[in-house]
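User: Sequence for Glycerophosphodiester phosphodiesterase below. Tokens please.
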Amino acid sequence: MARKLLIGAALIIGALWLNNNSLFSRPAAGTEPKLIAHRGVAQTYHREGLTDKTCTAERIDPPTHPYQENTIASMQAAFEAGAAVVEIDIHPTPDGHWAVFHDWTLDCRTEANGVTRQTPMSVLKTLDIGYGYTADGGQTYPFRGKHVGEMPTLAEVMDALPEGRFLINFKGGPADDGLLLARAVAQNPAWADRIWGYYGAAGPTIAAATATDLPGGTKPVMKECLLRYIATGWSGHMPEACRDTIVFVPQNYTPLLWGWPHKFTARMEKAGTAVVLLGAHEKGDPGTTGIDSAEQLGDVPDRFGGYVWTNRIEMIGLLSRDVSREE
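Assistant: Structure tokens for Glycerophosphodiester phosphodiesterase:
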């Protein structure tokens, strides 16, 4: 009897191993990581004590390049560095535009005050978006006066970078914002091929994704997807929450995922879902950490079939090309 139990257990373990092994799902050699550049080429900042109310412009690292996030120049530089997709942040304005700017309010990065979405684009175009950046606690402001008038509209981004693909982040707002963007996409059909997907605030993200038939990811759906997959993924079952969406996976959560990396990404791809690998998530950190160092990039699986999120595209893009050539 004991022998039969051992044989049965071995067969079950063997079946689980075969069903969740990545050996037969590994992409072809020479596959470069597909990189998502967070805000384009941007100024980085330290994350110690970070909250969702922290003004990150006041804590930047010593600058190593002249670019400001969410500008056309920074997006162009990101694509040239190897980005497959550039993530951008948008807000509707009272005069009928979409402002591409990170913050809900203007006081952190610019010389102005007020709510971004309540400010006409004609006014936003006059602002210095590099005004508030400092790396030394306010002793110097290295970007003041250098980025006046560089806040773009979404239409300007699309016109300036006709080959680029973009992940749209809704910074908040009602579901009607998503429908408003969907109408803009309908009026500009070429945008549908340029928008890789949506994420962020649940209301507008779901509305835009549904109306344009493009993928959208929200934090509640991503959490439900991963928790359900951890519970049932051993069987190959794909939870409904994991279908036709975008799933962000912190690097330190990957050991929990059945079939990681290649079987997992293949299953998600079959379900119409894109996998985006983040840096390790630290408890209490409200943001999205990236693959931002050579060490972190070295931990990305060989021939990874998903996307890799980075805040340092100017460095990671070069390193990832070197890795691909070595293969």
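The domain at 34-164 is CATH 3.20.20.190 (TIM Barrel).
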